[in-house]
Amino acid sequence: MKIAVLGGTGLIGSQVVRDLQASGHEAVPHSQSTGVDLISGKGLRAALAGVDAVVNVTNSPTFDEASFDFFRTTMDNLLATAREQGVGHAVVLSIVGVDRVPELDYYRAKVLQEDLLKAGRVPYSIVRATQFFEFMDAVMSWSADEETVRLPATPIQPIAAADVAAVVAEVAAGRPLQGTLDIAGADTYTLDELGGITLAAHGDKRTVVTDDTAGMFAAVQGDAITAGPDARIAPTRYREWLAR
Q1: pTM score, two decimals?
Q2: pLDDT in tens, 176-199
Q3: N or C: which end of the chain has fewer CB within 10 A?
Q4: Burial level of 57, CB count in 10 A (0-12/13-18/19+)?
Q5: Are 129 and 156 in contact (CB under 8 A)?
Q6: What is the three-state SS of 173-201?
Q7: Where are the alpha helices (DSSP H) in 85-190?
Q8: How many Å apart are CA 169 and CA 186, to the nearest integer?
């Protein structure tokens, strides 16, 4: 198959391209750096010409209300061009539990992205993933100082980016799901617990302080962003990943 990967030079997209190519597909990465701009539509028609499927792993540059405009504009452009070019499958990467955290603007904007895809006329698949291992340092930085890292006791089920990319590539090369597939890591931690594990692995002497008002994930209620029983469980475990 010929598959266009929008956001194909980023953390997930570059690995999706590599996995698809390793499976014998013609996967082409596209991003602003390659001349394709989903916001303006520049280069999009050429990027989708003759492709069997398109994967969209682009992301809003902000987590605030501006993310609504980003996802609305980019999905409108993507779906209109994909239909024009006869693309038979559109795949979007989203977030497990995204519809259960209405307090977060970014999560509501991702729900909008999903709804636009579902309402479009291009056969589709949605892959929802839990939080990536690779983002843990950034999450801790939101509420850290020289001595402490303040984190809420929010249950999360983190997953390796490589495991996410492998599933996205598999879905892109298959028949449209016309639905959603959830994927998650093998272990569930509270975020403050995960922070302590991460600091210890890095030899970082700062102390984790449990603070249920700290950072973006303080808005999450209960186990809203952990996976349900039907989710696919990824093989990589966080402690093993840290030890690499």
Answers
A1: 0.96
A2: 999 999 999 999 999 999 999 999
A3: C
A4: buried
A5: no
A6: CCCCCCCEEEEECCCCEEHHHHHHHHHHH
A7: 105-119, 136-141, 161-172
A8: 20
